[in-house]
Amino acid sequence: MSMAIALTPRDQVAGHFGKAAAFAVYDQHGQFVSKIENAGSRELGCKHKKVIQRQLAEYGVSEIVLGNIGQRSLARLLNAGFKVSRVAPRTALNDVLAGSVDKEALTSAEQGRDCKREKGACGCGCGSKKKAPVAKVGMSSLAPMSGLAKIGGFKL
Q1: Whether 69 contacts 106, CB under 8 Å
Q2: How deeply is 6 buried, as exposed, middle or buried, from its count of CB atoms within 10 A (0-12, 13-18, 19+)?
Q3: Element (H or E) spanning 73, and its range?
Q4: 65-92: per-residue pLDDT in tens?
Q5: Residue 106: burial class (beta carbons within 10 Å; 0-12, 13-18, 19+)
Q6: Which one is predicted more confidently, 25 or 45?
Q7: How far apart are CA 58 and CA 52, in angstroms?
Q8: pTM of structure
Q9: Is the pLDDT of residue 154 over 70?
Q10: How far is CA 92 from CA 3, 52, 66, 95, 114, in A?
Q11: Dihedral sign of CA atoms 74, 26, 1, 96 in order
Q12: For the chain, how far is it from start to end, CA to CA, in angstroms?
């Protein structure tokens, strides 16, 4: 049973799953396996959490330790079969590995944090609202046409 810990750049437990700088992966014996960098979160928008989930699954991670997580992300991880545990944010990595901190098992999405901002249509808060395509002047959006039909009331 391998474990991934969401970390800040100072090797403390990150305050939020999606904003963690990296995820340290350890095997069942507590030996370091790999570090997954959380790069590209701004470029990918809300998709970066799915990328992280896929990478964690590739390493065979069964438990994720973190500070906080939103309800939607928690539901996605639980549905994928991950065991999710919460510890106090900024807890030292060594304390987590030594088992000297209390872990709270998160078993339902309601235990995650409420979304503070509903920006995007996707519901993740990334602000990438999907917009309807802008109709071009003189082009019919109902049937494909080659060329313009009208410009300023004049027929062509």
Answers
A1: yes
A2: buried
A3: helix 71-79
A4: 999 999 989 999 999 999 999 999 999 9
A5: buried
A6: 25
A7: 10
A8: 0.72
A9: no
A10: 16, 22, 12, 5, 26
A11: negative
A12: 71
